[in-house]
User: Which sequence fits this backbone?
């Protein structure tokens, strides 16, 4: 009896204290069935809304989870389900996402901040009767808003149905893009999408009021997993600007992994070692394929059997500082008459080091085919392509790090010079690019599914 005055003060603000006391054990089973039925509808719905908002799917689940618990505590209706809506998803997609500058982790942070701000405003509005404003919005405005929302949703989801790349822009631009890109339709994606729609409609008519949506989602996930349909293409989940800096690359990759922890591969121009460190910090026992720069630490890593056992694959390929030494050496041979060139587009062979080709040097120079130094001899970010044992055998760690000549070394003549193929707009103006300019090519093309 003593707690009644206290409950009388608390229940108006936390209604859950009232109905929890009155809840009976025999009602638990019915509540459990009701909860499972609601989950069957809202789980696929929340995943779709998150996609519409251009956020990771899990954020939609968080919305329903947090909002549902909060309303159960502070709400008064037993029939109302609280969670994300298409209108909210569209608002986030057209406002917050644009402020993220392509950084998905920043977009998630901004969307979370928006949710908290709106929550505070709604709580404050409760005390001033802000809900009454809704009565001043005419039906015509609501119908127009719903129609616009439907068109927007259709314009963003149609490219996914046809398996083509979507674009940014207004509704008319999106629909126009779909029409103009119909010849690029991915038939397999279209068939799967139409089959899912047919199942939605059919099951909805045969089993009205049942959680058929969840059933279709579960079937789609099962089919995708069993037949490996997710592996029939490559999806780019994020990009970043490393600014030729491994620390920046590590930070940016860490942000992408926070939103997409199941990334399978990373391609970098520079910052390869930093990108690898981000993966190691996030999931040390499940590495990925990383291709890019020629850092000494990266070369040692891709050749390490322990790292390979954890999934690390890669290739070290980059035009390094040695190209400057090569150009200077060639210039001196031309000026002294030792060489005559038949063209100006000199080809410098691009180093291509696979894990099986990594060979650790015993000394300070690239000799006997070695191309990497021990970890205790140079920092992990040392660029191995600063040396070239074939074209610049005079170079050593002392010469590239200190700028002093290698003791006892003499300038060796260059081998035969190769003139690069004409590439229109790249190394020549009025010329024609050879049809086989990519041959021989060490990169095998990805088969079209």
Assistant:
């Amino acid at each position: 009896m003593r707690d009644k005055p206290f409950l009388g003060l608390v229940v108006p603000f936390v209604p859950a204290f009232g109905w929890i006391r009155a809840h009976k054990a025999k009602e638990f089973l019915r509540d459990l069935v009701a909860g499972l039925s609601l989950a069957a509808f809202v789980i696929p719905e929340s995943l779709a809304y998150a996609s519409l908002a251009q956020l990771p799917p899990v954020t939609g689940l968080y919305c329903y989870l947090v909002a549902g618990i909060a309303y159960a505590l502070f709400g008064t209706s037993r029939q109302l389900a609280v969670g994300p809506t298409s209108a909210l998803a569209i608002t986030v997609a057209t406002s917050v996402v644009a402020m993220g500058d392509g950084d998905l982790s920043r977009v998630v942070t901004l969307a979370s901040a928006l949710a908290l701000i709106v929550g505070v405003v709604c709580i404050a509005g409760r005390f001033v009767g802000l809900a009454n404003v809704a009565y001043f919005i005419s039906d015509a405005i609501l119908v127009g808003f719903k129609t616009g929302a439907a068109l927007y949703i259709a314009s963003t989801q149609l490219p996914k149905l046809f398996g083509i790349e979507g674009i940014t822009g207004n509704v008319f631009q999106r629909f126009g893009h779909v029409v103009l890109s119909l010849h690029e339709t991915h038939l397999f994606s279209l068939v799967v999408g139409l089959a899912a729609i047919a199942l939605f409609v059919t099951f909805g008519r045969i089993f009205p009021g049942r959680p058929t949506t969840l059933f279709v989602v579960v079937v789609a996930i099962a089919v995708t997993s069993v037949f490996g349909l997710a592996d029939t293409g490559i999806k780019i989940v994020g990009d970043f600007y490393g600014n030729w800096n491994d620390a920046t690359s590590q930070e940016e990759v860490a942000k992408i992994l926070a939103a997409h922890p199941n990334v399978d591969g990373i391609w970098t121009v520079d910052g390869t070692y930093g990108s690898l460190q981000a993966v190691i910090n996030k999931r040390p026992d499940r590495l990925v394929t990383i291709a890019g720069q020629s850092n000494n630490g990266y070369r040692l890593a891709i050749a390490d059997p322990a790292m390979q056992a954890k999934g690390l694959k890669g290739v070290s390929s980059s035009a390094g500082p040695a190209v400057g030494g090569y150009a200077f050496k060639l210039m001196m041979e031309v000026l002294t008459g030792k060489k005559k060139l038949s063209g100006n587009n000199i080809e410098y062979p691009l180093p291509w080091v696979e894990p099986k080709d990594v060979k650790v040097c015993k000394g300070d120079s690239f000799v006997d085919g070695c191309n990497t130094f021990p970890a205790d001899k140079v920092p992990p970010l040392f660029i191995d392509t600063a040396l070239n044992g074939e074209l610049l055998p005079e170079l050593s760690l002392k010469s590239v790090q200190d700028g002093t000549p290698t003791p006892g070394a003499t300038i060796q003549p260059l081998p035969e010079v190769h003139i690069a193929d004409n590439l229109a707009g790249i190394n020549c103006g009025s010329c024609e690019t050879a049809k086989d300019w990519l041959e021989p090519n060490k990169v095998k093309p990805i088969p079209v599914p």
Notes: Residues 54 and 93 are 6 Å apart (CA to CA).
